[in-house]
Amino acid sequence: MENQKQAGVIKQKTSLARWFLIVSVIVVQIAIAYFLVTLYLLPKFGQLTSKDASAEIQDDSDIAVIGEVFIISGLTINPSDSKGRRFAVFEIALECHDKKIVNLVKRYEPRIKDEFIALLRSKTVAELSLPSAMKSTKKQLHKILNEILGDRKIDNIYFTEFVLQ
Q: Within 13 Å, how many C-alpha atoms sit on residue 129's CB side?
């Protein structure tokens, strides 16, 4: 009987010793990981972020001031030579320095979208693929805006999204 008690006590001690060993190993691994991260990874990460931050912090004198921006999104078209097999998705930003013109653009947005879609649908896949052709497309879009809005000034047109599939 006493042997059984001793065996139970020994079993209990070995079980506690095993748990103590497992917990100790985990604590040591956490400590090693902490020191490796703080000594090696964080300084390298700090160098990367400080380079990025210093690149971002520069003299703002050479940066042009951007005006009010109105986004025309949801323009999906099939190019003229695609026979419905290809499509293009556009998001166009209109920039101007007069808030009144932005309000006018909001008012005429359906008509502007319609005219933009008609123009973009007339383009071939090749025309949409060439950067030089896209510059002439911007000029044509500008002309459409001047016809709709009168001679009001839209300063810039940006293609903020362009996907040709």
A: 9
